[in-house]
Amino acid sequence: MADVVRRAGPADAERVAPLFDAYRQFYAQPADPALARAFITERLARDESVIFLAEREGRAVGFVQLYPVFSSTAPRPRRLWLLNDLFVAPEARAGGIGRALLARARRLAEETDAVGLELVTAVTNTSAQRFKRTVMRETELHGQRMRVGDKVALAFGSGNRDWRKFPNPDVYDIARRLQGHLGFGAGKHFCLGSQMARLVTAIAMKRFLERVPEYHLEVDEIAWNSSSNFRSPSALPFVTH
Ligand code: HEM
């Protein structure tokens, strides 16, 4: 049987809930099937979100959840869909389901004459994610008291998406001024190899593009290494033309 993407109704809560629970676990929340079931049941019963469910061989394998909001700054103020949750079960990945769910979400925006979709996804798309420090001197930052000996995680990845620092921080803007970017850290421990890393990357990309000018990714979703410090793909399968 082919993959099916359909809108979930209140009767589908039991099918969506385990996926929602797995999705929350991906975002480091503890497994809690009861909480997941209650949340999804409530959203669907109250018509407070739109959920599209992907099924393969009749088995629920993915979902996307959109919340209705409005855009007041569009030329004609109207509906905007907040695409908050998207999940495909690991065993069903790389088969076009993520793409089908996104296409369905996009169609919802068209059908409802919405301004568009606003994507809220993991704030993780930078290589250096987190480094740790031990507090040596009592400090207070943003109302948070830190005592000597406390362990602190510096969330560089999140800092690179700071909307107070960078306008449109979630947009891939190749012309963005890099001042203040934390990709190589900051302050005393700023990366010693930053110049070398930049040079090596520039040479490698140049050589690669000379030999492989045309290529596309072979998978819908990239698998990432599980590391709390660095974010990097575990594999990047692509097809050359
Ligand atoms: C794209 C590649 C690289 C990235 C994204 C990167 C990122 C970083 C980051 C974020 C830090 C700060 C860690 C902290 O604050 O605790 C750091 C530190 C450091 N990096 Fe890199 N790095 C890269 C390549 C390199 C290379 C090629 C070298 C060596 C040749 C290198 C050597 C170091 C060293 C020695 C430190 C520690 C500096 C210190 O604590 O004083 N890095 N790097």
Could you give a quick summary of the protein structure above?
The protein is an alpha+beta fold and about 240 residues long. The chain has helices at about 15-25, 35-45, 95-110, 155-160, 195-210; strands spanning about 5, 50-55, 60-70, 80-90, 115-120, 130-135, 140, 145, 150-155, 215, 240. It has five helices and eleven strands.
In which order are the strands of the major sheet placed?
Answer: 1-2-3-4-5
Oligomer: single chain
Q: Shape from CA axes?
A: globular
CATH class of the largest domain, named Alpha Beta
The SS-based structural class is: alpha+beta
Give a list of the ligands: protoporphyrin IX containing FE
Low-confidence stretches: none
Relative strand content: 15-25%
User: What is the assigned CATH homologous superfamily of the largest domain?
Assistant: Gcn5-related N-acetyltransferase (GNAT)
Rg is: 21 Å
Proportion in helices: 25-40%
CATH architecture of the largest domain: 3-Layer(aba) Sandwich
Report the CATH topology name of the largest domain: Aminopeptidase
Average residue-wise pLDDT: 86
**Helical region count?**
5
List the domain count as a whole number.
2
DSSP E strands, number: 11
Distance between the terminal alpha carbons, to the nearest Å?
31 Å
Give a short account of the largest sheet: 5 strands, mixed
Order of helices and strands: EHHEEEHEEEEEHHEE
